[in-house]
Every structure is written in structure tokens, then in C-alpha cells.
Amino acid sequence: MNSDSDLQIAGDILEVPHLLQPPREHPATVAEFAGLARSLAADRSRWEHLVEYDATSRWYHRLRTGPGYEVWLLSWVPGQGSGTHDHGRSSGVLTVLDGALTERTERGTRALTAGAQRVFAPGYVHEVVNDALEPAVSLHIYYPGLTEMPMLPGSRLRAAGEAPFAPHCEPRTAPGPVTA
User: The pTM is what?
Assistant: First the structure.
């Protein structure tokens, strides 16, 4: 049996700089996008001074773009919501920066407080609302950049305590007598 350690065989990789990969300028994996969102969330000086609150509609600001992705900053006053929607062909990371938001999906309702993250794939259907009494701020990263956000008619999502979503069906009536 060989008693040599990997370090003795290969050497210390930190001593061989040509083997180290340079850090990426832009994220390319879900984990890297989530990491970008966390680093932006932690650096309040990059976004806090930009936030505005609008009682008539949700405020948003494109914070950053990169090859194939966008970073958006959104504010939510109490009672504002996104409506039920998906993000077309885009995947995304939603991070709550301040306050609290509620996310509703077909699987249920989830409270999202500052620091919470949600990662989603294309076609993910949800509704995000500020059910709290204080404003909220969130960061959204979309890859590829958001080109569509189809709104779904009516709320297909259940509120707390409601039965799970089921397609709308009309009751059938028994056929009546056939007359000529």
C-alpha cells in the first residue's frame, strides 16, 4: 500500500499558479448566480440609495447586466403584488433585501424575510406580494435576461387555508329526455 499523500504526489496546487483557474468575471451556474445575489445583498451601498417607493405601482430599477443576465432591484409597499406569472424562458434568483414578502405557488404559501432566497427554473409559476405592514425590497436575477413575464388570468394559486388548485369544471347535468 502506498503511503504517499496526494499532496506529496501532486504538490501543493497553490504553488503552481498556472493550474489555478482565474475567477470568473460573470456567474455561469445557479450557485454562482445565488452567490452574486448574496454579495449584492450584503453590500447595501450598491443598492440602498437607489430604492424608491411608489404607492401606485411597484418600483423597479435594473441594477446590473452581464452576458445573458440581468439584475433588478424592486420595492414593494404594503399590499403590492406581482400577480400570478411566470418568467418565460428565464431562470431566476429572488432575494429579499429588506422587509418581508409572501410567495404563493401551487404547492403553498411561503413567508420570505430579509436574506431569504428562492431559485426557480423557466416556467415556474408564482405570485409575490407584500402582506406586511412595512415596505420591502427584493433583488431579482434572471438568466437569460427577462424577455417576457406572462401574467396568468385570475389567481390560480391557493391562499392560506384554501383547497389545492384544480382546473375549473362545470357540473354535468343528467341528459334530459330526447325530443324530436
Answer: 0.74
